[in-house]
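Onboarding guide, step 5: your first structure request.
Type a short instruction followed by the sequence, for example:

Predict the 3D structure of this protein.
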Amino acid sequence: MTTTAIEGLPALEARIARDLDIVAYPKRDWVAPVLAPDGKAALDCAIVGAGQYGLALAFGLKREGVARIACFDRAEEGFEGPWMSFARMSMLRTPKDLTGPEFGIPSLGVRSWYEAKYGAKAWDAMFRIPRPTWMEYLRWYRHVTGAVVHNRHDCMRIEPLGDTLFKLTFATPDGDKVFYASTVVMAMGAEGSGGRAIPDFIRTALPAELYAHTNDAIDFTTLRGKRIGILGAGASAFDNATAALEAGAASADLCFRRAQLPRQNPRRWMEYPGFLSHFAALPDAQRWAYMRRLYAIGQPPPKPTYDRAMAQAGFKLCPSTPWDKVESPDGKTIVVTSGTRKLEYDFAIVATGLYVNIAKRPEYAAIREHAALWKDRYAPPPDMAEARLGNFLYLGPNGEMLEKTPGSAPYLKRIFNITRASVMSLGPVSASNSGMKYIAPRIVAGVTRTLFLDQADAAYRQFLNGDHDEIPNGA
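The system replies with structure tokens like these:
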């Protein structure tokens, strides 16, 4: 018999409460409050981003007895992350049996939630988790873990106040708001350390209404009957081509420079415990070599994504078709020059990915000059050069930011990063849900270590002078 939501979820939530109570040892909020300039206790940890990683980290810290935690996200409640905005795949790209957000509590995992709501047979029959279903799970996860989230809070600036406190300024619909925190985690997703890579020859040549990046909000209904040109051959290119054609576009040409699509996807090979746990322990040269190889071979779309696009009438693969020049003589039609060929479209979708460069992000403005990047710490041999990799953050083993010059900014080690800029240091899939099981505990350990060392002297005094009687006096 299929379990219904009415029968299943209340029982599951009761089981979660019991499971958490059983594993709650030690039951103690141990972090001493730090007084902020506003006279209130500062947050022990401010998590910038309330997507899958932000929520998981908030829960992980809560389990470790850290009480003053808050997540901040610029999105409306329930729309954090890409899942209900620019993500257009029908299902997650990762296997359905991934774990991580539940921090070892089986009843809190996505499978337990799904089976409680839809039944075990439905789980067995499912190939991969549908994208909207994953967002539905995250909304429930936020509720059941009791995460404190401030939505519509867009982080504008993080400023150190001495070596152990930060001032965070957020733009909100009600004006700027300020919070103070002892530690910070940057969990802002793929764009949280850079931006959308739109070639200048497109940005400067086309009216804004004639093109969009795959991460933009696109009203595909406006593309009905139009010819769509897509630059790029990654998964998002295929997803957007499918979305356009399903909305009634006349055609979608997927144009890319390579002579054929990439076929290898070693990221799936990387998803084993040794690699996910210990990539950060590899020598710099080896970490660089892994990432450079991934950049060189590219990444194909998952087979379901490929098959879905290829099944659409009007879809066309255009290998060996770089866009050398674009123009719009009449402001309505796009003319693409590719070698000696001319291609005409009514709308362009730029699927050229994202770049990493914290200098382009306002949040880092007060700290970026001191932050170590890979180009500051490692010089590859000439045959292994890859300029793009040099802009990734050079992080410590727990995802903590490091100083470019030792002693110049000791506060940096209190800022932890799990954006796209972290993957050179922590692992190619570390910032995705497939790496969360291994990377989130690392970050939690880094935060709690920092908070403990802050009060180490006070703890020693309590150890020496506290009342620790085991047996009553005079017994």
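Each response can be followed by summary notes, for example: The chain is about 30% helix and 15% strand.
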